[in-house]
């Protein structure tokens, strides 16, 4: 007699039906399934663009599941308390999920595997949204890589990306009632919550959601921008980036799907550079796996002595795009309006905060975590420590980006600046990068918060102090 008890599928930043190993295994078992997601509690919860993106993505996933005849069950709270309740209410026989690679996720998964198996259930976890799980790429001595170029060469030497899993057929959903389970939250409430603030309304104007939209974006990128990616990705006015990062972070498209489509349809410098950027994301996750405190502590301990400034006014001006440097201000204002910033501007704005303003990289990291729709704990922390010089594979601290030269090189006509810094819309190209030099000062636009040379020299002095401390 076959077992007709349901299998639980726990979604966690893998909001897709295709190339989803947990889903494929569950559907192939022929048991009915129950799909659920848990909004896990945070100690100090603040509204973030990434949370909003996840909420909108869950609504899109629920629509997909409804088309298959089911739904997404939504819960809020502590997974370690909620999942045993779900198991009891549903009378499930198995629990499937795709793995997480951050410290908290890994810890929760280990605890739950032990507790749920003790209840008599089979628990299976599967590889999630990386080409290579973080512990699998090692050097010849069996140690994790500390240099990206060496890591990437090793990955390429042994590259064997598995085929993409199709969306399963013959879905059967359990009809067991679990609404009275601890922490249950109606999906309709989530829909209302995504409309609650003017910030969210502005964000929604810039984004689409769901697995199908992710694949449309990938197709558009391959057809229109991939060939020029290496040359145009640094020019924000050209929109030369893939715009896949938020889809990728929430798992509405997988790394494998992107890899196979790009390698099948692209070639040349643009393709190589794009795949290398995908590799950097993999590298960042391997760094976080080896250094669970990456988001909080300098990987190079000498930076613990850095004399960071407690300059709240300067930090706020940086956040609001009021530094007086047009390229930086354009990037920061676009971030607030859209939840996105191209990689070149992420580097320039981060360098300015850490070096010109001498403000702790962790302050910038927190702001990006709040405002980026594609916030990724591994990439965000790795990139900030790279800019600060405090992490693995870091840019030397004495490498200080000149915000004027960066502006002149990557937005030569000021097109991006004029789009986001309206006070400078009528400034001539001759002064668009240095409006304080114009004969007539632009109304309502601030003078530079600090002169470039002054900020650079102060940063170099601070770096020399910690070197000789």
TrEMBL record:
Record flagged with keyword Flavoprotein: yes
EC number, as in UniProt: 4.1.99.3
Keyword annotations: Chromophore, FAD, Flavoprotein, Lyase
Name of the top EC class for this enzyme: lyase
Cofactor: record remark: Binds 1 FAD per subunit.
Cofactor section: (6R)-5,10-methylene-5,6,7,8-tetrahydrofolate; FAD
GO MF terms, alphabetically ordered: deoxyribodipyrimidine photo-lyase activity; DNA binding; FAD binding
Name this polypeptide is given: Deoxyribodipyrimidine photo-lyase
BP GO annotations: nucleobase-containing compound metabolic process; response to light stimulus; response to stress
Keyword Calcium: no
Organism: Zymomonas mobilis subsp. mobilis (strain ATCC 31821 / ZM4 / CP4)
Chain sites annotated for binding FAD: 229, 241-245, 274, 374-376
Feature type site, description Electron transfer via tryptophanyl radical: 308, 361, 384
Family: Belongs to the DNA photolyase family.
InterPro entries, per database record: Crypto/Photolyase_FAD-like_sf, Crypto/Photolyase_N_sf, Cryptochr/Photolyase_FAD-bd, Cryptochrome/DNA_photolyase_1, DNA_photolyase_1_CS_C, DNA_photolyase_N, Rossmann-like_a/b/a_fold
Residue span(s) of domain Photolyase/cryptochrome alpha/beta: 5-131
Lineage summary: Bacteria, Pseudomonadati, Pseudomonadota, Alphaproteobacteria, Sphingomonadales
């Amino acid at each position: 007699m076959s077992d007709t008890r349901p299998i639980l599928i726990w979604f966690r930043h893998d909001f897709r039906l295709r190339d989803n190993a947990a889903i494929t295994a569950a559907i192939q078992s022929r048991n009915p399934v129950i799909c659920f997601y848990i909004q896990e509690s945070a100690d100090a919860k603040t509204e973030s663009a990434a949370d909003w993106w996840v909420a909108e993505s869950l609504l899109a996933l629920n629509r997909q599941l409804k088309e298959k005849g089911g739904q997404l069950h939504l819960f809020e709270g502590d997974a370690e308390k909620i999942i045993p309740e779900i198991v009891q209410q549903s009378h499930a026989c198995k629990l499937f999920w795709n793995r997480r690679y951050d410290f908290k996720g890994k810890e929760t998964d280990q605890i739950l595997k032990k507790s749920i198996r003790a209840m008599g259930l089979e628990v299976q976890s599967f590889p999630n949204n990386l080409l290579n799980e973080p512990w699998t790429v090692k050097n010849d001595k069996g140690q994790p890589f500390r240099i990206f170029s060496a890591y990437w060469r090793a990955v390429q030497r042994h590259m064997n990306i598995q085929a993409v899993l199709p969306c399963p057929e013959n879905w059967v959903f359990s009809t067991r009632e679990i609404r009275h389970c601890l922490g249950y939250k109606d999906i309709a409430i989530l829909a209302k919550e995504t409309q609650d603030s003017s910030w969210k309304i502005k964000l929604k104007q810039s984004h689409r959601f769901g697995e199908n939209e992710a694949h449309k974006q990938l197709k558009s990128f391959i057809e229109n921008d991939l060939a020029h990616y290496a040359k145009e990705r640094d020019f924000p006015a050209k929109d030369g980036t893939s715009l896949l990062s938020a889809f990728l972070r929430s798992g509405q498209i997988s790394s494998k799907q992107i890899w196979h489509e790009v390698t099948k349809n692209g070639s040349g410098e643009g393709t190589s550079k794009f795949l290398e950027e995908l590799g950097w994301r993999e590298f960042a996750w391997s760094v976080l796996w080896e250094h669970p405190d990456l988001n909080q502590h300098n990987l190079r301990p000498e930076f613990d002595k850095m004399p960071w400034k407690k300059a709240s006014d300067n930090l706020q001006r940086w956040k609001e795009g009021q530094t007086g440097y047009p390229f930086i201000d354009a990037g920061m204002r676009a971030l607030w309006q859209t939840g996105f910033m191209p990689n070149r501007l992420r580097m320039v704005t981060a360098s300015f905060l850490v070096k010109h303003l001498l403000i702790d990289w962790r302050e910038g990291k927190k702001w990006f975590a709040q405002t980026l729709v594609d916030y990724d704990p591994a990439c965000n922390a790795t990139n900030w420590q790279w800019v600060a010089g405090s992490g693995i594979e870091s840019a030397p601290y004495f490498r200080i980006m000149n915000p004027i030269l960066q502006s002149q090189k990557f937005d030569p006509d000021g097109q991006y600046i004029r789009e986001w810094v309206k006070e400078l819309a009528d400034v001539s190209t001759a002064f668009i990068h240095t409006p304080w030099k114009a004969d007539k000062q632009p109304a309502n636009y601030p003078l530079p918060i600090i002169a470039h040379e002054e900020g650079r020299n102060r940063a170099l002095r601070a770096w020399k102090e910690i070197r000789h401390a």
